[in-house]
């Protein structure tokens, strides 16, 4: 048994957790399928709605798809496509250093997902193994980019907010993260960064992590 929320049932089985959200196994009673339910405190509703809006605009096999959204005070629930293989970070730590062929296969899928979303002017801004899902537990798996909580649309314009995970960021984004605001340029103008380029750098670091299972320096 679980908690009924609209057409969904949220079970007590936890799939994962982060700073602001918990993910439980859920069930879509209409389409008779298992789903993932991301539960967030309602006081972050503006950020949740932004994530739902961005995810709803994306439809690609290498991007985790949003299926539904409900509010039930004090919680907000996002129902997502279920991936049963865990995240890429866990996969790497369990496998150790990946073979070059498998790393290429996974990296190619991630590149396809990024190309698709970048063509729609969406940048992820926190791409890392923990935010990449394994669709099913097997060798050479299909992967999906997930957790769009820091994603940004209008990525054809410079970004100024400092977000992301430092080990996976390029220098121009790290400067903003350390200072919490991007310092002005020589003439006092605000200097932003390109979210799409940040994603490409983060993909490179992720590939490095796959091929060299060790500390990032």
TrEMBL record:
Keyword Nucleotide-binding: yes
GO CC term (a single one): cytoplasm
Record-listed E.C. numbers: 2.7.11.1
SMART domains referenced in this protein's UniProt entry, alphabetically: S_TKc
Residues that bind ATP: 38
MF-aspect GO terms: ATP binding; protein serine/threonine kinase activity
Domain Protein kinase: 9-217
Annotated keywords: ATP-binding, Kinase, Nucleotide-binding, Serine/threonine-protein kinase, Transferase
Any one of the GO BP annotations: intracellular signal transduction
PANTHER family (UniProt xref): MAP/MICROTUBULE AFFINITY-REGULATING KINASE (PTHR24346), MATERNAL EMBRYONIC LEUCINE ZIPPER KINASE (PTHR24346:SF30)
Family to which the UniProt record says this protein belongs: Belongs to the protein kinase superfamily.
Name by which UniProt lists this protein: CAMK family protein kinase
């Amino acid at each position: 048994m679980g908690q009924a929320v609209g057409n969904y049932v949220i079970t007590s089985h936890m799939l994962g957790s982060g700073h602001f959200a918990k993910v439980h196994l859920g069930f879509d009673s209409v389409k008779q399928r298992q789903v993932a339910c991301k539960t967030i405190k309602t006081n972050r509703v503006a950020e949740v709605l932004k994530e739902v809006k961005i995810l709803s605009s994306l439809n690609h096999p290498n991007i985790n798809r949003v299926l539904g959204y409900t509010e039930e005070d004090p919680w907000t629930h996002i129902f997502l496509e279920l991936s049963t293989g865990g995240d890429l970070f866990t996969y790497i730590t369990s496998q150790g250093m990946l073979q070059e062929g498998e790393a290429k296969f996974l990296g190619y899928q991630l590149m396809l997902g990024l190309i698709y979303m970048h063509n729609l002017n969406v940048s992820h801004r926190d791409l890392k193994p923990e935010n990449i899902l394994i669709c099913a537990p097997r060798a050479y798996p299909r992967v999906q980019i997930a957790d769009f909580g820091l994603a940004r649309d209008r990525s054809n314009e410079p970004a100024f907010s400092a977000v992301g995970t430092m080990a996976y960021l390029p220098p121009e984004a790290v400067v903003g993260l350390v200072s919490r605001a991007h310092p002005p340029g020589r003439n006092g103008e605000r200097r932003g960064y390109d979210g799409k380029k940040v994603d490409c750098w983060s993909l490179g670091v992720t590939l490095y992590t796959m091929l060299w299972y060790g500390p990032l320096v």
